[in-house]
Amino acid sequence: MTTFLVLGALVAVATALGLIWKSGQGKLRASATHSVIPAEFLTPGTTTLLQFTTEMCGPCAALKPQLQKIALYRSDITHREVDAVDHIDLASKLNIRSTPTTLIVSDTGEIRGRINGVAPARVFLDAVDGTPTATQENTQ
Q: Does domain 27-136 have CATH number 3.30.365.10?
């Protein structure tokens, strides 16, 4: 009986932690880092959707065509993909802890926001247009 209680408690804790993690996915957050993105990752005159990926990331592969389509239809937006493993120093500096993570970056390299995980196209468009109220993310 005690074994079942312990097992039930572990399942409940794991479920709660999973729900907490899931609640932060696909939402725009203000970036607490004051880093400037290097020019090699930007296109002059456009806002960049800078998508951090890894080779084995399934959600990254699903998100990529969506971001490419946004960039195709909006001349003021560029999509760039960055392999977090190949650019580990940059990913670490920017506190990229999971992929996909997409940074909304101004044409001057200023990070305007970040979206962890996959989100609908409207979330990315609103982020570029400055429509939503971003929640502050603790990135320490």
A: no
